## 1
Amino acid sequence: MRIVPLAALAAALAAAVALAGVGRPDSAHGAAPNARSVTVSGTASVQAVPNEAGFSAGVSTDAATARAALAANATKAAHVLDALRAAGVAKGDLQTQDVTVSPRWDDRGRQDGFTAHTSVQVHVQDVRQAGRLIDAAVAAGATETSGPSFDRGDRDALYRDALKNAFAEARLKAATLAGEAGASLGPVLRIEESSATLEPPYPYPMRAAADASTPVEPGKQNVQATVTVTFSLS
């Protein structure tokens, strides 16, 4: 039996221990990551009065033939569009939603001509003008309207503010939990952003434009952000 000298055996063991650390992220980059951490969620909202609006206006026409119904209805739709442009709506803020022609039936189930329908979506840059523009569309021949819907032109900026507030809330909650655990809050290890939400408006008093007979109340909207943050503890 071969006898290995004690000194040689100690050197071999030392080399094996050194090689065992090669390729491990913790040994290659220093100390191992802190295993202690805390994960919290923060939610915040930014409230604002909508400054933009949208509504649709439509016209319909009955005629004996599909062609006649469509032609007559096109004239009505053109009158509505001309009135909206004359009232100050930019061409880019007008979008045709649908143009349809369908058979019309009498009470006995027999075909009795055709009905053509056209509707246009109107983007109102200034919410205070919404009522006046609805009136203009109806005065020009629109027989149906839908809306309005409300939005903010700077919603992205409002959401970024909500994100900052949500992160601040998460940090405060994490610091509180760390203090209760007798630890100190360390660097951020992970951040997850939840989908942005826009809560529907709720009533908020606002006088309609002086020249509008149709009152439009935009209410207020909440732009909400939620983040989940993991902090290391020391």
## 2
Amino acid sequence: RKQDEKFEILKARADRVKEVVADPKYQDAFEAYPFNSGYFMCIRLKTVAAEPLRLHLLNNYGVGLISLGERNLRVAFSCLEESDILELFDTILKGIGELAT
């Protein structure tokens, strides 16, 4: 069934996001809130504000995220290819480093 196929694609993307954000290299910059295999997940930023980071990532890297409050970013992983997930979070980390300096 097509519905089962779509579910498996989204589940694989969610599993890959969970695997990537568990990497200790991100722990000083952000942490992931718990999420399921839906469409979105959120991270809590530890060192920079969400809106300036959102604008920096959009303007410099073409990465579109949604800021929620002072320290949270929402990531729509449902529209990412599984192979692009690591690059996205590495770009977020890079942007945090650029704003923190």
## 3
Amino acid sequence: MNTLIIAAHPDDEVLGCGGTMARLAQAGNAVSVLILGEGATSRDNAPPHAAHDLTLACQKACATLGVRDIALAGMPDNRFDTIPLLDIAKRIEAEIERVNPVHLYTHHGGDLNTDHAIAFRAALIAARPAPGNTLREMRTFEIPSSTEWAFGRFAPPFNPNVFVDISATLDLKLAAMTLYKSETRPAPHPRSPQALQAAAQQRGSTAGFTAAEAFEIVWRLE
């Protein structure tokens, strides 16, 4: 079973579904990741090698999770709104044609981060269930410090209806996130190791698991 992850920036793939990616990879599924943006150039005083460092961190983090099929589109950080939506959708569409996924995971459309919201809309366009499309399901994930900080003001709030047990892969998710040294924050920030573990435990408690990642199904074909 092929699965495609569409993430706006390096680290979003780990934050949103790192435990699920590791679980799928361990089960022998083919997991591919498309990172749309370079993730660094919008930041004040970012060193010239910041984007390169994020690329290396992404490769190491995905390898930690057992995922080696990674594509990076290099779009400008937090400036997806300067690119025609059609161009972003076509880049995702090309990845769908290359990977032939059955499941697609991407951002929730109501995230605070503009790139996340645009990534969702472009993915929704590219993944429409037209004849010949291999996709059977599209899910959205939550990103700590973006999904919850929108406070449901830009779109309906994230409303998860699928919970994936990551009790056995949470440690891998946390280890992968530590490789993103520039993206990890100290507690009580939502991207701190302590907060990420607590969030996984809270989502797990909803479904009777020790730890879980939550997703919202956008559409599914049966």
